[in-house]
Amino acid sequence: MQRNPYLEDRDKKNNASANLPARLNILLGIALTLMIALIVQLAFLTIKQGAYYQSEVNRNDETIEKGNIPRGMFYDATGRVIVGNKAQAAVTFTRGTSVTAPAMRQTAVKLSKLMTIDTGRLSERAKVDFYLANQSNNEKIAKIITKKHKNDKIALTPEQINTYKVSYVQRADLADNVNKNAAMIFQRMSGAYTLSTTFIKESDVTNTELAEIGERLSEFPGIKLGTSWSRQYPEGNEFKSLVGTVTNEATGLPEDRLHTLLAQGYSQNEPVGNSSLEKGYESILKGSASQTLVTTGSSGQIKSSQIKYNGQAGDNVKLTINARFQSAVQKILEDNLPGGDVEGAYATVINPYTGGIYAMAGVDRNHATGQETANPLGNINHAIVMGSVIKPAVLATGFQRGVISQNNTVLNDQAIKIQGTPPITSYWNQAGTPIPIDAGLALERSSNTYFVQLGMKIGGQTYSPGAPLGLRSDAFQTLRNGLGQFGLGTKTGIDIDGETAGYRGPTTGEAQGKYLYETFGQYDSYTTLQLARYVSVIANGGYLVAPHIVGSVTQGQPNSDKQSTVWTATPKVQGQVKLDAGEWDTIENGMNRVANGSDAWNTGGADMHKLVPKVHAKTGTAETVTNGNQTYTESMVAYTPGQPFAIAMAIPGMNNYLDGTNGKISAKIIDAYWQYVEAKPDAK
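Above: the chain's sequence. Below: its structure in token form.
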């Protein structure tokens, strides 16, 4: 029998309808199971962990916020303030625990309408960050990035997305037209880490800015009106180059120490020592910041703050420098500096017994333009070929090596003719006629050929006219060791960064003949400070004492103007030059004759002869080339016997030969010492 197609279709529909309740039952079962699980979880969270989550809602975080305090000051040896602090109004920002970039941007935009800051250090990256901190801009760029990378097989991380956004904004120059003032404020705010305080503007805040910001502080989360401290120099700005500088909100942290300082807790705009003593003594000058206990709610809002520690200003540094004497020496150098090719003048005045420096002045001169710049640190970082001032040290080495004795120091001043080298003569005996002279006269006249012959004996060879140079292989090192015991050719160890040891030339091959010039100071170079330490050895009877410029560290007392000393410098002996008393007498007698002798070829000069009390000295002249011209370095070392005074000075690049400038400047400095540092010994 044939089947009815209508019935077949009806049966199919009936079967499908019969299956529908079964599917619904399954779906309803799954939904019911999920609902039961959700109810169980809600019950668990409410009953078992409800108290915990309620406490999280009400939770307060306590964090210590650090404030700023004045840096320690610098005093001179007499207690005068060389570097002090000036309080000035400032606008600060303290970053909360959950402050977002958009929130900081909003504050920066509002603040920029009331305050103007220097935008010179606004970085390109900060402009991009400021642009992206705008929620609308961020979302728009995010969509572009997502669309461009939608076919990537691996999903982008948030860090990758941010990198792409920054790159896109930079390529499209989208941040070029941002408000620079607002962007700079945003950059400063971004430089603060959580609950640290940074300066938005630390100087030149106008009264109008203070008034308008003060009236609207509630509109600017984290913004406060505070106080900043800037350096001032009561004794003159010339001390800035000696003591060093401190960064400010415009310069920011030094790039070469940025990461180190950030790791130590500094903020981007926090002041920090940037050079010389300010940098070297940063750890004690910065003091300890004030501490405020800040309580924040779960959403990051600040609920309360309580000062726990008022902070302690930085410790003060008292120098061995005499401020008035320092200024006087600086002016003497500047007023008496020759022109022409002269490259500068440098002078160090030191206590030979303690190593304390009374004055360290210097001036650099651009021989092309004539422009002069104060540079006291040229005493420690300008290496100069000094000439004959080193001859007393060569004489001492001759005594120690046994090639000359105190009872017989006579050698001929004569032309030195070594095979293969140019002839060497003394300026006062150009003919080279053999003239017997002793050590005292050799120092007074500054006989080059006397010390060439003495140096050859130290190197193992007795001079014979026309003979080839036949020194021992260790001759150069032997002579340098002799000079080195006086501190020549080595760093002094002064407590200022940037010192150089000078330059020591090669000693092999064709340079072997330079040994002859080394014997009268025409080869290796030294700093003026090395000369000061060297002459101190002669003045104090043989002790190599480390020079220093910091005499003590003091700490202020709470609610008092008094200070307590927490550290005092003590003399540091670095070595000893051992000579018999008679040998020292020979050296000192020769230096006395330089400053006070009456020989027709005396090198001390009239200015030195007039000094009272009398000094012992040694002059120096070295032949140099400056700006393509034949020039000279004039130098001088001097000390007053039995007194805590010694001086070294040098003038490189002079066009005139033996014009007495070194003696004139030295005499003026010595007179200034008796005027500003201590009374003359014969004063009643």
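The mean pLDDT is 89.
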